[in-house]
Amino acid sequence: MATAKKAASPKSTSAAKTAKPAAAKPAAAKATAAPKRTPNAAFMKPMTPSAELAAIVGAKPLPRTEVTKKVWEYIKKNKLQDATNKRMINADAKLKAVLKKAQVSMFEMTKIISSHLS
Fold first, then answer.
1. CATH tag, 42-114
2. Which positions, given as ranges, span the membrane (predicted)?
Protein backbone atom coordinates (compact mmCIF):
# COMPACT_ATOMS: atom_id res chain seq x y z
CA MET A 1 0.00 0.00 0.00
CA ALA A 2 2.87 2.37 0.74
CA THR A 3 4.25 1.78 -2.76
CA ALA A 4 0.95 2.80 -4.32
CA LYS A 5 1.14 6.18 -2.58
CA LYS A 6 4.68 6.71 -3.81
CA ALA A 7 3.70 5.89 -7.37
CA ALA A 8 0.73 8.29 -7.25
CA SER A 9 2.66 11.25 -5.87
CA PRO A 10 4.98 11.81 -8.89
CA LYS A 11 1.97 11.96 -11.21
CA SER A 12 0.22 14.56 -9.07
CA THR A 13 3.32 16.80 -8.86
CA SER A 14 3.94 16.60 -12.60
CA ALA A 15 0.33 17.60 -13.24
CA ALA A 16 0.76 20.57 -10.91
CA LYS A 17 3.98 21.59 -12.70
CA THR A 18 2.33 21.58 -16.10
CA ALA A 19 -0.61 23.67 -14.88
CA LYS A 20 1.58 26.55 -13.61
CA PRO A 21 3.25 27.55 -16.92
CA ALA A 22 -0.09 27.51 -18.71
CA ALA A 23 -1.48 29.99 -16.17
CA ALA A 24 1.60 32.23 -16.51
CA LYS A 25 1.22 32.73 -20.27
CA PRO A 26 -2.05 34.75 -20.16
CA ALA A 27 -0.58 36.95 -17.42
CA ALA A 28 2.39 37.74 -19.66
CA ALA A 29 0.04 38.67 -22.50
CA LYS A 30 -1.77 41.12 -20.22
CA ALA A 31 1.52 42.78 -19.25
CA THR A 32 2.37 43.56 -22.88
CA ALA A 33 -1.00 45.24 -23.40
CA ALA A 34 -0.14 47.96 -20.86
CA PRO A 35 -0.86 51.57 -21.89
CA LYS A 36 1.92 53.53 -23.59
CA ARG A 37 4.24 55.49 -21.30
CA THR A 38 4.31 59.22 -21.71
CA PRO A 39 7.78 60.81 -21.87
CA ASN A 40 9.01 62.83 -18.93
CA ALA A 41 8.71 66.55 -19.66
CA ALA A 42 12.19 67.21 -18.22
CA PHE A 43 13.80 64.98 -20.86
CA MET A 44 11.82 66.60 -23.67
CA LYS A 45 12.69 70.21 -22.77
CA PRO A 46 15.03 71.70 -25.41
CA MET A 47 18.50 72.39 -23.98
CA THR A 48 21.23 74.54 -25.51
CA PRO A 49 24.53 72.66 -26.02
CA SER A 50 27.89 74.21 -25.12
CA ALA A 51 30.22 75.34 -27.93
CA GLU A 52 32.27 72.10 -27.69
CA LEU A 53 29.16 69.90 -27.80
CA ALA A 54 27.63 72.02 -30.58
CA ALA A 55 30.51 70.93 -32.85
CA ILE A 56 29.10 67.38 -32.64
CA VAL A 57 25.30 67.77 -32.31
CA GLY A 58 24.65 71.22 -33.78
CA ALA A 59 24.02 74.60 -32.14
CA LYS A 60 20.21 74.60 -32.00
CA PRO A 61 18.45 73.62 -28.73
CA LEU A 62 17.58 69.91 -28.55
CA PRO A 63 15.99 67.63 -25.93
CA ARG A 64 18.42 65.49 -23.91
CA THR A 65 17.21 62.37 -25.71
CA GLU A 66 18.06 63.84 -29.12
CA VAL A 67 21.47 65.03 -27.92
CA THR A 68 22.27 61.49 -26.74
CA LYS A 69 21.11 60.02 -30.07
CA LYS A 70 23.24 62.46 -32.06
CA VAL A 71 26.33 61.78 -29.93
CA TRP A 72 25.87 58.02 -30.46
CA GLU A 73 25.43 58.57 -34.22
CA TYR A 74 28.74 60.49 -34.20
CA ILE A 75 30.46 57.73 -32.19
CA LYS A 76 29.24 54.97 -34.50
CA LYS A 77 29.93 56.94 -37.71
CA ASN A 78 33.54 57.58 -36.64
CA LYS A 79 33.99 54.09 -35.07
CA LEU A 80 34.93 55.46 -31.65
CA GLN A 81 33.57 52.54 -29.64
CA ASP A 82 36.36 50.36 -28.22
CA ALA A 83 36.64 47.09 -30.16
CA THR A 84 37.21 44.83 -27.15
CA ASN A 85 35.02 46.57 -24.55
CA LYS A 86 32.01 48.15 -26.29
CA ARG A 87 31.11 50.08 -23.12
CA MET A 88 34.19 52.26 -23.52
CA ILE A 89 34.32 55.25 -25.89
CA ASN A 90 37.64 56.36 -27.42
CA ALA A 91 37.50 60.11 -27.94
CA ASP A 92 38.71 61.82 -31.11
CA ALA A 93 39.66 65.54 -31.17
CA LYS A 94 36.06 66.85 -31.20
CA LEU A 95 34.82 64.44 -28.55
CA LYS A 96 37.90 64.96 -26.37
CA ALA A 97 37.01 68.70 -26.19
CA VAL A 98 33.72 67.66 -24.59
CA LEU A 99 34.83 64.69 -22.48
CA LYS A 100 38.28 66.00 -21.40
CA LYS A 101 39.61 62.39 -21.45
CA ALA A 102 40.94 60.02 -24.10
CA GLN A 103 38.60 57.19 -23.01
CA VAL A 104 35.41 57.12 -20.93
CA SER A 105 32.66 54.62 -20.21
CA MET A 106 29.31 55.20 -21.87
CA PHE A 107 27.69 55.84 -18.48
CA GLU A 108 30.32 58.43 -17.56
CA MET A 109 29.89 59.99 -21.01
CA THR A 110 26.19 60.73 -20.48
CA LYS A 111 26.97 62.38 -17.14
CA ILE A 112 29.65 64.59 -18.73
CA ILE A 113 27.41 65.49 -21.68
CA SER A 114 24.60 66.57 -19.36
CA SER A 115 26.97 69.11 -17.82
CA HIS A 116 27.40 70.64 -21.32
CA LEU A 117 23.66 71.35 -21.62
CA SER A 118 21.97 74.45 -20.26
1. 1.10.245.10
2. none
